[in-house]
Specification:
By secondary structure, the protein is mostly helical. It contains twelve helices and no strands.
């Protein structure tokens, strides 16, 4: 057997052909994962379906096969972002105290730049809600309303346990949201402003201490 033949036996030649196709879930994930970095490069106005497709390494038609339009794509992006936050929540009584459960709900471990695109989409939804109703609904329903509902669930649990005495947990949840979250208005009107993690934690600690001293 010649040396070339021996080499062919030892190392079979790769056959040419079409690359292995990604399944729809992988393709969808790659598209959505490309959005944050692309936004930092070109801004919201530069995020066309064409530039998104190029960034994800796909054809524009492939992107359109998965998302009807840019609003649908942004809607899916926000759904994934909010779902990633909410999926870590505990929705049953695991024995942890009220304060510990709230600290688990209000996480401060994400870098501020991770919220650049979500804040820009919120700004767009507020400014042009009439033209982007799905986006506006996603920002409202999956953002503050979902978190406020979760806060009320935690308050109801604390009341049932005897940790707190609150007659109207719905009103208390709305108030607690405002006390614990940094104000969003300054972030919306000033694209360069981002509160530091330290500032967010300080507000959370101060707001929670005031709330607990008022209802305990």
């Amino acid at each position: 057997m010649t040396q070339d033949a021996q080499k062919d036996v030892a190392e079979p030649r790769r056959t040419r052909g079409r690359p292995v196709a990604m399944d729809p879930g992988e393709r969808r994930d790659r598209i959505l994962s490309a959005l944050d970095d692309l936004f930092r490069e070109v801004g919201l106005a530069g995020m066309t379906m064409s530039t998104i497709a190029r960034r994800a390494g796909m054809s524009k038609q492939t992107v359109y096969d998965m998302f009807q339009d840019r609003d649908s794509l942004f809607d899916a992006y926000l759904e994934r972002r909010f779902s990633a936050l909410h999926c870590q929540d505990v929705t049953e009584d695991d024995g942890a105290g009220f304060e510990a459960r709230l600290r688990r709900l209000f996480r401060f471990d994400e870098p501020s730049e991770a919220w650049d695109l979500p804040v820009a989409l919120l700004r767009l939804a507020i400014a042009e809600a009439e033209h982007h109703p799905r986006l506006a609904s996603r920002c409202l329903e999956n953002g503050p309303r979902t978190k406020q509902a979760r806060l009320q669930w935690e308050l109801d649990l604390a009341v049932a346990r005897g940790e707190l005495k609150i007659s109207d947990t719905a009103a208390a949840a709305a108030l607690l949201m405002d006390m614990l979250h940094p104000p969003i208005l300054e972030v919306l009107v000033s694209p360069q402003f981002r509160p530091s993690i330290k500032a967010c934690e300080a507000r959370f600690n101060y707001g929670l201490s005031i709330f607990l001293s008022g209802v305990s």
